[in-house]
Amino acid sequence: LLAILGTETSSKYEIKNPLGQRVYFAVEENGCFDRRLCSPLRPFTIRIADNAGREVIRVIRPLRCNSCCFPCFLQQLEVQSPPGTIAGYVVQNWDPFLPKFTIQNESKEDVLKIIGPYATCGCFEDVDFEVKALNEMTTIGKISKYWSGFVNNVFTNTANFGIQVPVDLDVRIKAVMIGACFLIDLMFFENSLDGL
């Protein structure tokens, strides 16, 4: 519908394991007005359910600013797992050149950092956001937007992402990393012409 009518519909996602098997599916909830007027800045609630349809993670993003000119109102979202119990937060950090985020636990204590590349266009290649320790020196994983071909990137909003983190990372922080992936997608790759 986006390519033909210019109408943005609620996003739907599949979350798969490394073997390509679907383990969760997710649906974005917000109003048509929010999608049309606010597009990549829109507030949303994403409900993530297991294959039996039970909601296991909820990602909540309020309406916030997406500009380095307003460092007091940058992006943030809350991740609940299970719904109603805060697992942690993703908070955008002000930086004039690089996309930077902090992963926080349920007590709003900093746990990890995410640092993206200077250019996120991803022309004919994957785009990696590195997951780092708090000192920003040690890379422990990454969130990647995979290049999915010229036609896919130009004419659709379909995208493939991967999250690589240590196996022993706290399961609640893994849930927050899923939320971070959604935020990165909407902030940097929402428009259909991204990737050109």
TrEMBL record:
A GO term for molecular function: phospholipid scramblase activity
Recorded GO CC terms: plasma membrane
Full protein name: Phospholipid scramblase
Cofactor: Ca(2+)
Superkingdom to which the source organism belongs: Eukaryota
Organism: Motacilla alba
InterPro entries, alphabetized: Scramblase (IPR005552)
Function text: May mediate accelerated ATP-independent bidirectional transbilayer migration of phospholipids upon binding calcium ions that results in a loss of phospholipid asymmetry in the plasma membrane.
Entry's family note: Belongs to the phospholipid scramblase family.
Translocase among keywords: no
Keyword list, A-Z: Calcium, Lipoprotein, Palmitate
Signal peptide: none
Pfam families the UniProt entry points to: Scramblase
